[in-house]
Every structure is written in C-alpha cells, then in structure tokens.
Amino acid sequence: MSLRTHLIKMSFMLRPKPAVLFVWIRVKLAAVAAVLYVIVRCLNLKSPTHRFDLTSGLARRLLGSCPLLTKEYIPPLIWGKSGHIQTALYGKMGRVRSPHPYGHRKFITMSDGATSTFDLFEPLAEHCVGDDITMVICPGIANHSEKQYIRTFVDYAQKNGYRCAVLNHLGALPNIELTSPRMFTYGCTWEFGAMVNYIKKTYPQTQLVVVGFSLGGNIVCKYLGEIQANQEKVLCCVSVCQGYSALRAQETFMQWDQCRRFYNFLMADNMKKIILSHRQALFGDHVKKPQSLEDTDLSRLYTATSLMQIDDNVMRKFHGYSSLKEYYEEESCMRYLHRIYVPLMLVNAADDPLVHESLLTIPKSLSEKRENVMFVLPLHGGHLGFFEGSVLFPEPLTWMDKLVVEYANAICQWERNKSQCSDTEQVEADLE
Questions:
Q1: C-alpha torsion angle, residues 127, 130, 132, 135 (rounded to 10)
Q2: Nearest to residue 369, comparing CAs of 57, 52, 51?
Q3: Domains of the chain, with CATH numbers?
Q4: What is the distance in angstroms between the CA of the first residue and the CA of the last residue of the chain?
C-alpha cells in the first residue's frame, strides 16, 4: 500500500462520524442560545415601555404643559433597560460630555461653627414667564456641585432662565475642611435651610423651585414639611430617586436581591473614605466631640461594611440620637410628606436597584390621597440614570434633566395664569 493511499485511509478514519458531528453542532447551538438568554435577561431586553399612569389632580392640570409626561420614557436600546447599567453609568461617568457651568462659591458659618458652602449660578437666558426664579438644589449622598450629573442639570436649567443654588454637603468637597466635629447626615436640613434663607434675603423678589436628588430628595421634603414657613415663596418641589423611609429601607439594603447588599458595601466604603479624610476634625484629641461619640467608634468605622453600621457608630451621634431606629425615624421625610402643600412631584424608577419596590408604596399612596402630589414611575432609569439615546451611546442630557425643567416651567406658567385670572376677577369686582 502506498503512503498516499494510507494517508487517505487514515483521514477517513479520523473524520468525525455524522452522529458525533450532529451532537457537536447541537452543543454549540445550545451554548450560543444560553449566552443570548443570559444577555437578554441581564439587559432586560424583553421589558416593555409604557405610558405613565397619572391620576392626581396635579397631574391632570399639568399634562397639557408637560409633553414628557404624556409619552413613554424610552431608554437606549441595547443596555438602557438594565437598571444596574444605568446606575453604574451614573455612578462611574456621571454624565457624558458634561458642561462646566461657571458659578460663585458662597460660605455660611453655622451656629455650631460648621462652615456650609453652596455654589450659585446665574441664569443664561430669560425665563419663559419672565419672572425671577431660583432652583435650590440638594444633591445625592456625599455629592456636591462639581459632580457631573449636577453640572449637566445646572447648565440646562441656566439655559432655561433659572438661577441655581447647589448645596455642597458638609464634608463632601475634598478641598473644604470641616470647622466643627460634624458632617452631613441623612436628614439634617440645617445647611439646606441656611442656603434657602440666603437666597430669600439676597433676592427678595425671587420665587423658588426646590429640587432634591436621592438623599437630597429626603432632605428637601423634610425641610419643607418641618415648618410651614419653609414653604413660603416656594412654587413647587421635585424629588428624584429617594427611598422615603430609612427605617424601612435598612432591611432591604442588607438583602442580596438586585445586588443591594453589594451597592450598600460600595456606598459604605465611599462614606468611610470621606469620614476618615476628616479624621482630625471629627476625632482629634483637641476636638470637642459629641458626648456619645467615643474613640472606639473610630475603630468600628474601619471594620464597617454597610451604611447602617456607619450610621449607628458615627452619624447618628452627631445629633445625639440614642439609637439607630430613632435616628432613621426622625431623619426620614416620610413623616413630613403630608405637611407639604406646594405642588410636589416624586420621581422614581421601577428598576432602581437601590430602592426596593415596597418603598414605592409610600409615594403612590400619598399621590392617591393628596391633590398636590404627583408620582411618576418609569419602568426603567435605574438610580439617577434615565439616560436617553438611540442604540448604544447615551446623550449628554437625560430624560430626568428635561422632566424637572419642563415640570418647573409648567408650574411657573400655571401660577402666572392663576395670578392673571385673580387680577382680572378683582378688576371686574371693582367695576361692579
């Protein structure tokens, strides 16, 4: 037998049999199908979009002036239906190609010696109703005016005729030292109130639009509900992606469902870094610390893996709360929401991995009972994401940015029309 013949015979012997080849093809197809299934599930590609179910009296009055509320929120096609990716993009990038608005930093000395700061941005155009309107903005946890999502929103609001005042949470700015043994907490409204009072005093003719993002949403709602006088000169309030009750949220934040425990760990790690960067101001030997704050609390801080541990060992003690339960009950806006009488829009996303669905019954129930409250719940958006875009790349301006400004414009126009109607009725009464 020749060598060539032998090689041909061997090649036929080594060639896979049809049955084996068929099995191999089926395995590859099954693997591809499994990968596609995981991608579809992880990216939530089969999730539909829908129009908002808005039934409150406030919603009925404003729908004609708020086109965004009459349409579906449509996220980017490939990844926009994943709340995790929307949240991660917000947390990592903030925004895409964010602008750099120019503002002036203001300093306020608080009664306990703390130095509060906020940044003031003047409007870049005339407002649609021609009035002097100031947006007072409270950012999310450990955030400030230099965060990209804040810069993007402020730039858009300025171009729509709004003056913007943005609170820098106490201790959040890396280049501003603490001047008292205290930093921002979950529901402390002192610094926000000081900023609002400054605006009212400096611009006596201005009217206010109150805006809060995430933790900032809790602070602004609590501030408005604490004292009735806090609502004077306030046209409306917007809260975006807050959780409403820290007491009810603490249990869900320890669950692995939707990776909340992982997010909890990441946020706690960031808080630890901020607190430890102010170690001397908060725990130094020369510092007159709160009586309940001890040196052992610093060692517990190093080992903390959740926000609840940090709140229990450090944050609640800045204000003298005897327990974590008392701290969360007193600092949450849930017990103040029913005291807010100005138009209030509460915005959350159904796929927000940080806010458990059980917490969304709070704004839903409130909007059903109160005519001045509107609850907007898109299916997608994550936590402070709400990116828009055709397929892959998001646009710099988000649906959230547009909605807040459009809602504020509608309220301003509504108030202007009410005022004109009142003036007309008064003139007619005088003529009679």
A1: -30
A2: 57
A3: 57-245+339-430 (3.40.50.1820), 258-284+292-331 (no CATH)
A4: 125
User: Cα(31)–Cα(376) distance, rounded to whole angstroms?
Assistant: 40
- Specify the 3-state DSSP secondary structure of 384: coil
pTM as predicted: 0.88
DSSP state, 105? E
Q: How far is CA 81 from CA 44, 239, 381, 402, 422, in A?
A: 6, 22, 7, 19, 46
> From start to end of 277-330, where are the E strands?
none
Q: Collapsing DSSP states into helix, strand and coil, what is residue 35?
A: helix
- Measured in whole angstroms, how far is the alpha carbon of residue 167 from the centre of its chain? 14
Per-10-residue mean pLDDT of the chain, 432 residues long, equals: 60 60 63 50 59 75 86 88 90 77 96 96 95 97 95 96 98 93 94 98 98 98 97 98 95 91 95 93 75 73 94 91 94 96 96 95 95 94 91 86 97 86 51 51
Instruction: Please list the residues that pair with 211 across neighbouring strands.
Output: 137, 238
Give me the active site residues, please: 214, 352, 383
Tokens of 210: 């109150």
Q: Minimal CA–CA distance to 249: which of 375, 321, 351, 357?
A: 357
Tokens of 141: 């946890």
Could you tell me the two tokens for 166?
């943005």
